[in-house]
Every structure is written in structure tokens, then in C-alpha cells.
Amino acid sequence: MRRTIGIALIVAIALSSSSKAQTLIDFEGPPTGATSGLDYLSQGIRFSGSAGVQEVNYGGAISEIITSGDWFSPLEMTFVDPGDSSVDATTDYVAMQNHWGPGGPGGGTDEWTASSYDINGVLIETKTLIGDGWLIFDTGAIHVLVLDDMNSTAFAMDNLTYNPPTTGGGNYCASTPNSTGVAAVISYSGSTSLADNNLTLYAAPVPNKPGIFFFGPNQIEIPFGNGFLCVGGGLTRLNPPVVASGNLATYVVDVVAAGLIVGTTNFQYWGRDPAGGGAFFNTSNGLSITFIP
């Protein structure tokens, strides 16, 4: 295992086709060595496991970067409400460039891995990159990113660009393990603004079978199939049904066509589960989203 102090620059840029105004952190402002994980709460990010800002000579160019604490510790980013850091938040887009390149400190080719997690701590996806290239996370509602170096060098970040964290959604109610062996969790990405009409629902992990997302005004918790029904009142199905792939069900919501209005609405996923026995279907937990104009 290589133990070179290789500082590969991670440049996060806006490769997304999203029209949102993205947030940029370049780490050039704070004094070298004076940065703590608290310095970026007003921009919606809490860094953990950070050694702070360091100045490096990368290929003849001086740059300031934020690094992990040591060779063996990951750098963790948690998204919070910029106005109140005690409130958890999520984002739907982060793009990071691993630029080792000629003249990189330590030489050689670096290997990075990063994992995204939702607000319940459920893994969304893990990506690995060897050498130069891009790591783009745009699936699910991302609450935490854990960034690590597989070659035992300090993970470092030069610039970071991401869609602004949002709140307004939270999980409730119980879900039970389906035939994947894990209970399904429903989440979302996009905007809670009806004017934006930019909302995507996710449920994972679920069997790769047909299922449907639905919503209603009330929060309940009663036995239903192999799980629980978490939404009550007049229920509205989001048609057409979807077929999960890779144990992930996804539905892009047209908030206008669905008739969603300002206020709080509750969502859930129902899916077939023949391998689960019993009622041969199961559900996710519930998701409450508060919509604004």
C-alpha cells in the first residue's frame, strides 16, 4: 500500500444540466491552517475529518485546498440548512474532478472512492475513479458524502460546486425488510417549489419489479401487505407504474399534472415482491414534503 503524501486536486464543477444557481466554495478565503468544519455552515456544508486548508505547489501553481486529517481518514461532507445548521438538508447534485495530472505531488496515479448517503444514513451509491476524471453524484437526495483515498494518501479538495441544499422533506412511519433483505426508504431530489416543477422520487432498495408512487394528505401507520400504509386520506397514484432497476425505483413528478398544491403532502412507494412471500407486496416508509409556491 503506497504511503506517499500525494495531494491530488479535486475540482468540483458544474457539469449538470440543471438551471439552478449553484454554490461554489474555492477555499481560497480562509487563512491557511485556520479552517474548521464550522467555517462553511453558512454555505450549507459541515466538513468532518478535515485537517483544514493547506497551501500546496501543484505543477508550479500555488493553490489552497481542504484535506482529510491524515492518510487513513476520510473527509466527510454533511449538507445542512444554510440558515440553521441544526437542520438537516439534502442536495441533488455534486460534481468533483480528480485531477492528478503531470507534475502532481507524489507522482503516480491516484485512486479515489466516494459514497453518498440519504438523510436516513442509507447508502445511495458508491463511485470509484482512478487517475484524472470526474466523479458526479446526481442520484437521490444526498445528505452525506464520504470521500476517501484507496491508496492511503490524504484526500484533498480544491474547489467544490453543488446545488444549494434544501429542506422541506422528512421521513416518517416504519418500513419492513423486503426480499432484498433491507427495508425500503423513500427520498427525493430537486426543488420543493411548485414553480420550479423539478421533483424526482426514489425508493430503495426494492425488488426489481413493478411498483407505484402515491401521495395523500394524512400521515398514518397501519399494517398493509408485508409492510405498513403510511399515507391516508384521499390517495392519488402517480401513473404510470415504474419498474425498479438495480433495486432503485425512480419517478419524475410533474407537479402541475399531479395537482400538488402549496403545503405538506405525504408520499409512499408500493411495490410487488413475489420473493418476499406473505402478501407478495411491500412498501417504503413515508416521506413528507412541504411545497412552496
Uncertain regions spanning at least 5 consecutive residues: 1-20, 30-34, 101-108
Number of helical segments with 4 or more residues: 1
Characterize the quaternary organization of these chains: single chain
**What is the terminal separation in angstroms?**
54 Å
Instruction: Find the CATH topology of the largest domain.
Output: Jelly Rolls
The helix fraction, in percent, is under 10%
Query: Which CATH first-tier class of the largest domain would you pick?
Result: Mainly Beta
What string, H for helix and E for strand, traces the elements in order? EEEEEEEEEEEEEEEEEEEEEEHEEE
Global shape: globular
Total count of domains: 2
CATH architecture of the largest domain: Sandwich
Main β-sheet description? 6 strands, antiparallel
Give me the Rg, rounded. Answer: 21 Å
User: What is the tally of beta strands?
Assistant: 25
> Strand percentage, roughly?
over 45%
Which structural class should the secondary elements be placed in? mainly beta
Q: Could you report the average pLDDT, rounded to the nearest whole number? A: 77
Explain this structure.
- By secondary structure, the protein is mostly beta strands.
- The protein has 2 domains: 154 residues, Jelly Rolls; 123 residues, Immunoglobulin-like (Sandwich), CATH 2.60.40.
- The chain is 1% helix and 49% strand.
- The protein contains 1 helix and 25 strands.
- The strands form 6 sheets. Strands 3, 6, 7, 9, 10 and 12 form a 6-stranded antiparallel sheet that branches. Strands 15, 18, 21, 23, 24 and 25 form a 6-stranded antiparallel sheet that branches. Strands 1, 2, 8, 11 and 14 form a 5-stranded antiparallel sheet that branches.
- The longest helix is centred in the C-terminal third of the chain and has 4 residues.
- The relative contact order is 0.17.
